[in-house]
Amino acid sequence: MAPRDTFFRSADMSLTQLYIANEIGREVVSALGEVGQVQFRDLNPDTNAFQRTFTKEIRRLDNVERQLRYFHQQMEKAAIPMRSSSDFSDTLAAPLASEIDELADRSESLEQRIISLNDSYETLKKREVELSEWRWVLREAGGFFDRAHTQTEDIRQSFDNDEAPLLRDVEHHAPRQNGDTQGQQSFSEMNIGFVAGVIPRDRIGAFERILWRTLRGNLYMNQSEIPEPIIDPMTNEEVHKNVFVIFAHGKSILAKIRKISESLNASLYGVDENSELRRDQIHEVNTRLGDVGNVLHNTKNTLDAELSQIARSLAAWMIIVKKEKAVYDTLNKFSYDQARKTLIAEAWCPTNSLALIKSTLQDVNDRAGLTVPTIVNQIRTNKTPPTFVRTNKFTEGFQTIVNAYGIPKYSEVNPGLYTVVTFPFLFAVMFGDCGHGALMTLAASAMIFWEKKLARTKLDELTYMAFYGRYIMLMMGLFSIYTGFIYNDIFSKSFTIFPSQWQWPEDIQAGKMVEATLKEGYRYPIGLDWNWHEADNSLLFSNSMKMKMSVLLGWCHMTYALCLQYVNGRHFKSKVDIWGNFVPGLLFFQSIFGYLVLTILYKWSVNWQEKGVNPPVS
């Protein structure tokens, strides 16, 4: 008897033992992985993961994978698109060990290069922000100093009374100076110092309160808003800030102001009281800003160029590293024969695929130039094999729905085969609209027509879910057109394809109830008569019909599912399952729901008007 390999039952599986030369172990696993029909057993279940043979290689690949993730994060930060992995799907062969080593070395050097450029860029960006803030402080400080010079008395009154006589005495005896002060005394002559800087706007209120309470009002403060937001180089977010200048007397008070400012994330900058010197400072800051901007632009271009170069191959590198990790993880499941220097593996595979697996192993041997072949032995075992159901792009979605509830036992009837019909049909019984069903069919057909293009496109989660279930949507749409035709429903409207079996009396009087009568010798060919949509008892009739039809369909669905239990019992030759499970379950189910279905069918099949009695109340 030929091995079974159909969608009705899972494929026949064989347990095989492989003897692989140590030199080609990696190449063999990689080739079998591309075939995708082999499940290896772990022959070292008691060995710790850190004590296995290829742990060192896996750790190295973990580091490479971390570096690739870092590249991807930097590309997202710089808004540089990555080449799609679908562009490499037909060209990615199993790499040589030397190519993996080369990739690891290249990733290491690229990481150091990107980190160095990033550090330089962040340092320059931080310096640019500092210079920009300093320029704003220098611009606003002129107005602050002018107002402060005109309000010397207010500043004196802002300090303690103990200090006031000293200030007045200094002011009285100090010589007048010419220049930008125009006869006014400088703050240094009055022994008044100041602190200037920039602080986030959301902290200015707390800043003022803390200063007032800490210094007991011994300060004079001016502050203004910076009109444009400043980009924080650490978070790359916009921050609104204020410029402030605080006047106070005494070195200890000024030191306290500086500490409080720094604790609230304020940046302090040096400002000269003399307007000529401030103009020189602004000119110097502008010059330095221009130089920093040029270097920053060149650094950014270099960084983007490096990331763009990486983006061309990053998707392929990620796939290669993931495959390589899977290869070494699988090799860790093998046992090693020290005497023969041979890897020994056990694996489940479909019996029908044994020839393909042997030819794949022979190809690997031929490419490696080994004279000793890889030996494949079939092992007789009482262990339960894993379930393997072959699917295609049409049945894959339906099988996924079944697997979500539970994977079928090995060799039992696969419910996925029946789900191809029952799932979309039961949906259509609920949906039941020709128009909306046609729209669903068109949408699914479009995804099927352009499926190759869509498969290479990066889709969002919702669109990918619809694309993955495109054949399910197609079946649901087709069945919805059919049930909508039965319900005589298109976009919630009826359509009159055939003449109605009901006729209304000709002498209709306004305000009186009219009852339609059946035509002699004619019945509506298929589905619901469109005249029901115009009747007053339309909702009562349609709801009753659909409810009873749902009961009938549910009974059919559950009955055939119970019958599958009998088929499985026969297949496994289990009389206990047949007589102890199937028969009692079927009798119990039919005695309740079977009786209900019979009464519904009986009520529908009898002409109660001819009998002259009312039908049973439903």
UniProtKB/TrEMBL annotation:
This is V-type proton ATPase subunit a. Keywords: Coiled coil, Hydrogen ion transport, Ion transport, Membrane, Transmembrane, Transmembrane helix, Transport. GO terms for cellular component: fungal-type vacuole membrane; proton-transporting V-type ATPase, V0 domain; vacuolar proton-transporting V-type ATPase complex. It is a multi-pass membrane protein. The chain crosses the membrane at residues 425-450, 462-487, 549-567, 579-602. It comes from the Eukaryota. The keyword Transmembrane helix applies. Essential component of the vacuolar proton pump (V-ATPase), a multimeric enzyme that catalyzes the translocation of protons across the membranes. Required for assembly and activity of the V-ATPase. Residues 100-127 form a coiled coil. It is found in: Membrane. Its main location: membrane. It comes from Penicillium cf. viridicatum. Belongs to the V-ATPase 116 kDa subunit family. InterPro entries: V-ATPase_116kDa_su.
